[in-house]
Predict the 3D structure of the following.
Amino acid sequence: MRIWQQLRERLENLTGQSRWKNSRLRRVIWGVLFFALLTLVLGNLTAPTRLDVKVGDVAPRDVPAPRAVKNSILTEERQRAAEQSITPVYKREPAILENAERYVKAVFAEVRRIRGQTDVDVATRAENLADRVRLAVVPTEAYEALLTAADAQIVYAEEQALALLQTALGEDVYERDVPRIKTGIESGAEPFTLGIDHPALAQFVRELVKSRIEANMVEDQEQTDWLRTKAALEVPEVWWQPGQLIIEKGKTITEDQYAALVDLGLVGQKATYQGWAGAALISLVVVVVMAISIVRWRPELLERDSKLLLLGLIGFITLFLSLALNLFSSQLGEGASYLMPVALNAVLAAILLDSRVALLQSVMIAVLLGVFASSAQVGSVAVGVVGSAVGVYTVARLDSRNDLYRSGLMLGIANAVTILALNLLEAASLLEWQVWRDVALGAVNGLLVAILATGALPLFETIFGIVTPLKLLELSNPNHPLLKRLMVEAPGSYHHTILVANLCEAAAEAIGADPVLARVGAYYHDIGKIKRPAFFVENQFGGENPHDKLPPSLSAMIITSHVKEGMELAREAGLPQEIVDFIPEHHGTTLVSYFYYMASQNSQSEYVLEEDFRYEGPKPRRRETAICMLADGCEASVRAMRQKSHLSHDQIEQQVRKIIKDRLEQGQLDNCDLTLKELDTIARVFVKVLSGVHHARIDYPTQQKPANGEQAQDKAGPDSAAPDAAAPDAPGQEGPGPAEPAQDRSEQQGAEQEEASPGPDRAE
């Protein structure tokens, strides 16, 4: 325990005592630090260790896919196969026949033109016609026949040529049909027969028609491309799953494997800065959103560096644990993401810090893990968010550490239901074992979160000095070493402590403060009286009062020193700072008035400094310590009055309200946020509780012994003490001097009536 105490003190000195404690620079530095760490983590997820290899090299190590990335090589191969499986779409092109007919007509028009050149000999005209028509396989005799034949034969030849074209191209002609048609035309087989008797003319017509035969069924490129694109898009993408082995150590790297490494960014210089830039932008968004949320919801977290450090530490621990568990994805498939304990952040941060901040941070962690570690799985993100919400809700009220396992059980059930719902939405069959495997992993996640939280919570409580409900419950155990010492060594103070604790708890609950903190803090507020219990009247039990032999200044010093000594004992025992604050703040800067007035009367000098008789403070800074101050004063004052006579309800109320009014007028409540309405509520609660404790009892009649006439003792118990007995508690609040009657003086005392013990001699 001492080791943790020293560690915590060093942490507080490092983070809380610097000169820039309350400056904006401090907050900016924390923000930059968290931003840099988060960028480093996310950047490494997107830019893993690169390999200096090429095709044909031996793999130096096994290389699994660091994250889910599309396998572009295999995806493209499948897309190309799908495209090639699409048969081209053809359509008939009417222009093919039209162009052929137009050409034939133009040739015969040229024949007629050259036939009209009668001033030129036939041979020359035949050469000119051959140059114009350019049919290589047509002999010169055919051209001469065109020039010398009768006009009717030329007209008939043209008609036969056009008819042959219509027969050949009047049907769907594909590229594969062109050779068959040309062979049929050349051989004159059906349906490509000619009715031309002149062999030379017939040969010319066949060759002319053959030269214009081509496929009239052309590919519809637009429709074909659309069908191929559609087929390629319908091919599901192939992904490299996290943990999937790309290359094996000792194996030769193939082109396909190398391409996969390039796609994953594991080799080459493929825009590594882009991954880091993306990680930096996401980190910036996370830090800014968290900062805004803390400022709006829990600005007090910004005042203690240790709490900011704790919030960041919880987040990064959750992130690293989730990433480590995600490595099992190669064995468990996508279901491994359901094991990531995102809700651990929600549970720990909600208990130690704030539930709203915890939930927001958990949601962000779930999204980050879903994007960077789980192939953007909607399921893992949904489970993380739902689990975090359930975790925050279930730890809102903890009565014991076993309640953490109840929270884990509810969290596991919520995870299982969420996973089952997601599978039903995807129309998955409930007969598939993968579905129930994932459901089981979600349930195990809840148990895992409970185990981790149970182990981590005490560690964080001790190191960072965080007071949780569970920590308070442990400190309230009567077997705590300090409380046992107080009970044994200072039983009167212990009894007073119990009564003050009851008052504090009831008042805190009535005004909406923390009743557990108020009660446990009250248990330890007078722990310093263990050092010198005999100097406090509640522990004297009618014995000699040591203050009778001491000067007032020394008595006051002894009385006030129990605060410092109590703080030392508390820190040695490792009590949280929130509990330690009760020790000095329940006195504030009040005056030990009895000894101050005694010193003023006995002093030979003109002035006695009040500062020498005041507690060092500080004044109460939170509602719970202020309640303890008021409860301490009211309980002591009412008990001193009760020892003089029985008290009515009105007398108790009058004294309680007087004590509260005195503390308010003295400025002891200036640093806490108690309202006048809350003070009135506190007064009514105090009166109710004290009236129940100091209720009236009947006085039993006394019996006289005939033998000696001696009167027997009253059998009514401690409440029937002699009315002239002096109060066992000494004055400490401002009031009249010791020359006043004891009854009047005791009614004006406050919390300090317990601190000094003048006894009967001083009271008179």
